[in-house]
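Course assignment 3, question 2. Fill in each field.
Student: A.L.
Task: Predict the tertiary structure for the chain below.
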Amino acid sequence: MSHVVVIEDESTVREVLRFHLERAGLRVSALDSVQGAHEALTTADALVLDWMLPGESGLGYLRRLRADPDLRRLPVLMLTARAAEAERVEGLESGADDYLTKPFSAAELVARVRALLRRAQPDAPEQLSHGPLQMDLGAADARLAGARLNLTRREFDLLAFLTRHAGRVYSRTELLDRVWGADFLGGERTVDQHVTQLRAHLNDDPARPRFLETVRGKGYRMRPWTDENG
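Answer field:
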């Protein structure tokens, strides 16, 4: 689950941000100032930062972040009531990756944060290998012990995503977001159906899975490959 830090001094706005981001399946740490923020940011995947803060301004703090070798690449969405073009440019030139003006819609907030998180993902390798499973991402080709798997595009994308992140558990909501995309209107049952179909392709027994494991109350993961899987 991606971790987003929010720094916003207005309690009402802060709780609105927390509510909508958590509803989108993100883990949120919400702070009212930059004091003590560094510890939270060490595990953050993105930062939503208000321009006007008590003590040190968000803009000043952003400049310090960009000078910190450990945090300089952290994606930052600047949140502010300042709508003038010159001020937006100042925020972007100071290191913000994106800019959202108050008042904002929940849908736009979530879409912009998700876009930052996607852009921050490292480029995926063209080839994936997981025990007897081999995947060529460019050719959309998957093979099990040399035999080609006849997968739909979405089955392939889901299998590739879980294989790339083997060992990590993803909720159904996260998988819908990361594989189907934020605009997909279907429900979580879609994920269950695709996992069932993939298990059939992989000859995977859900009671004793070699590949796709259900983690009760949390979601699904691709099991790390060990000698026990074979």
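Instructor remarks: The chain has a mean pLDDT of 86. The chain is about 35% helix and 20% strand.
Grade: pending
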